[in-house]
Amino acid sequence: MASFFQRLAKVTPVAFGNAFGSQRKSGFRIPFGALAAVSGGMSYLYYVSSPDLVHLDEINEEVGPKVALSPDKWVEFKLQDTARVSHNSQLFRFSFDPTAKLGLHVASCILTRAVLGQDAEGKPNYVVRPYTPISDPDVKGYFDLLIKVYPDGKMSQHFASLKPGDVVEVKGPIEKLKYTPNMKKHIGMIAGGTGITPMVQLIEAIMKNPDDKTQVSLLFANVTPDDILLKQKLDILEASHPNLKIFYTVDKPTNNWKGGKGLISKDMAEKGLPGPGEDTLILVCGPPGLMKHVSGDKARDWSQGEVAGILKELGYTEEMVFKF
């Protein structure tokens, strides 16, 4: 439990008392010690009567490798705890067999599914949304999701209603960008809001690998300084890794704000990103408005589509840009 609080200190500047006030009364429902004792020497999957659902449980280790995710079956993961990261964003930690890894690739996401009502025939009405875990893919026993809770967001509102012990169905991983160390000399990133999550996944993979010499430049856009997710974590990574450079910009700066102001501009991109070239890759992730402004949207079939916006004006080609 203590390790969770220590990790959260690097994720968010919000005080523990505010972040966990309501949760401290009940605490974790599954103590780490008890969970480790029960699951030692076991794996975690067994199939039930439903053909498309897998439950976390204990079976013999011979069944397969210790990987919690399944690309073909929905797996139930239990919510361990939550923490508020900003005024409209929360961190959710889900637990599983502490001897297993999630099975996530860099860079990839997962699909989450929840039953929200019934259709006209009385069958379950499923809502499915993709999310990118921000926890280390190599960590065992848990994964973390950082989710912005929208007033009209069906899935985000569902997540916000969850209590420790509740479960969410997950499938994956869904590969986005197949990253290999040193695949490019310089990677530029443009992120807006929760579009930072795949960037964090990739940044951490690069920075923890001493053999990966990739230079990383991040432009991170938000509405206000308080909306900047994971800023403390990113600042620590930047301070300890000379190959990481970060530039923040906000639409509504405060009086003491020292970063950029307004939307990501052509000038910001030109100064903050590596120039076009064979050893350059620019990654973009954010809300539709940012995508259209910076790189253009994906095609209707969800392929990458043509490069447009600021990146096209600066001379980047489709081979140099990847849209999450």
UniProtKB/TrEMBL annotation:
Its main location: mitochondrion. Transmembrane segments: none annotated. It is an enzyme of class 1 (oxidoreductase). Pfam families: FAD_binding_6, NAD_binding_1. Gene3D superfamilies: Nucleotide-binding domain of ferredoxin-NADP reductase (FNR) module, Translation factors. This is NADH-cytochrome b5 reductase. FAD binds at R129, P130, Y131, L146, K148, K154, M155, S156, T197. Residues 72-180 form the FAD-binding FR-type domain. It comes from the Eukaryota. Belongs to the flavoprotein pyridine nucleotide cytochrome reductase family. It is found in: Mitochondrion. GO terms for molecular function: cytochrome-b5 reductase activity, acting on NADH. The keyword Oxidoreductase applies. InterPro entries: CBR-like, Cbr1-like_FAD-bd_dom, FAD-bd_FR_type, Flavoprot_Pyr_Nucl_cyt_Rdtase, FNR_nucleotide-bd, OxRdtase_FAD/NAD-bd, Riboflavin_synthase-like_b-brl.
